[in-house]
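Can you please make up a whole protein chain along with its backbone structure tokens because I've never seen that pairing?
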Amino acid sequence: MTSRDKAGHNADDPGSIESWLVSAGRDRRPGSPLNVSPCPASNFVLGERRAYSRDDGTPGWVALEEIVGGLEGGALVPFASGMAGIAAIFDQLPTGSVVALPDDCYQGVAGLASAGQSRGRWTVHRIAVADTTGWIKMCGVADLIWLESPSNPLLTVADLDTICAAPRKQGAILGVDNTFATPLNQRPLALGADVAVQSDEVHRWTLRLALRCCNRTRREPAGGAARGSGTRGCNTRHPRNLSCGPRG
């Protein structure tokens, strides 16, 4: 525990979520600013861990990662778009992998999976969102189990509790697009998923966030690889978002 609350929201105490969201990600030492100030800098004096904002972020980004990651119960990796974050997960797959994909899912994800299959990167198996037995079977075969619940656009609900608890192939990644439910209603990482994705672009008219996509990871290898992929592709910490952070 530091001056900022990095413990995340306690799922066993749902009554505290409003207070936690207000206080998280802020420097609570006496005399500190109530809100994290915008920091539009692109580079920093060498000697500490922060050198370039595109790689290391700004104080506002750090606060944002603490809040959203804590809400989900994992480590947050922000991207400039929803598809950039999802592509970073698919990019972790070696050639010849097997991908399990819902029959109803965001068309951008279906297109990404189809394009990879046409290039021989992986093979794709489509499973009905509500086919729990089919998903459990694919957990033992697939290298990436990709779920949307509720799905987009038909809002079909998957049995995430059962699917996430099913035995998986060694090294497999189970990811959940949690955009529609949000971590206020569903926490896939707590159920056993490795990655939870939320595209805040879908909610931009209400949340007013410059952030476009959040990937939360439970496993450090998956999170570290996704973060590196996003940084190399200039997907994280988009220049237009340099000042983004909690400002009350």
Observations:
- Confidence is low (pLDDT under 50) at residues 1-6, 205-212, 230-248.
- Residues 78-238 form a domain with the Aspartate Aminotransferase; domain 2 fold (CATH 3.40.640.10).
- DSSP finds ten helices and seven strands in the chain.
